[in-house]
Amino acid sequence: MGQFEEKLPNLWKKIGTHGIMTLSTCSENRVTSRSMSTVVIDGRFYCQTDQTYLKYRQISENPNVALCHKNFSIEGTCRCIGKPLESKNDFFINVFKKHFYGSYKAYSDLHNEVLLEIVPTLIYSWNYKLTKPYMEYFDFVNCIYRRE
């Protein structure tokens, strides 16, 4: 087992199963960010939004996005995978309802609501050992871990 595979379980443990994460999107030279109720399932990040919102239009034009959570920066590609309440998305809705019941109840069944899936391409974090700072990088495209 390589260093990437060896360190991956601890990365997911540190990130956790859910959180309010900042999603950044960009198109037409305009970068925007907003907080999103996000769940992590099998190494992918999921959130829902209204398809009439700016962030959805930006993702449609440019699927490259970033999430910020705790001391992690998560870069990835995003796509719409349907409506939150479609039976094929039960894997999401069951976890989302558990952690964000208010958002589930208020938004999941709205007509324009869609489910977004973010597949990470690079995750990096800022850390300290004693008082010495270092960075950890997880390159998901090439399955490479490095520490600087």
Number of helical runs?
4
Secondary-structure element pattern, one letter each? HEEEHEEHHEEE
Helix percentage: 25-40%
| pLDDT averaged residue by residue | 97
Counting DSSP E segments of at least 2 residues, the number of strands comes to 8
Structural class: alpha+beta
Q: What ranges have pLDDT less than 50 throughout 5 or more consecutive residues?
A: none
Gyration radius, rounded: 16 Å
Distance between the termini: 21 Å
Q: Could you tell me the strand content as a percent range?
A: over 45%
Shape: globular
The spatial strand order of the largest sheet comes to: 1-2-3-6-5-4
- What's the story with the biggest beta sheet? 6 strands, antiparallel, barrel
Give a description of the structure.
- With about 150 residues, the protein is an alpha+beta fold.
- It is about 25% helix and about 50% strand.
- Strands 1-2-3-6-5-4 form a 6-stranded antiparallel beta barrel.
- β7 and β8 (about 145) form a beta hairpin.
- The model has no long low-confidence stretch (mean pLDDT about 95).
Describe the protein's topology.
Layout: H1 3-15, E1 18-27, E2 30-41, E3 44-50, H2 54-61, E4 64-69, E5 72-80, H3 90-99, H4 101-107, E6 113-129, E7 132-139, E8 144-147
Antiparallel strand pairs: 1-2, 1-4, 2-3, 3-6, 4-5, 5-6, 6-7, 7-8
Helix pairs in contact: 3-4
List keywords for this structure.
8 strands; alpha+beta; 49% strand; single chain; globular; 4 helices; 6-stranded antiparallel β-barrel; 148 residues
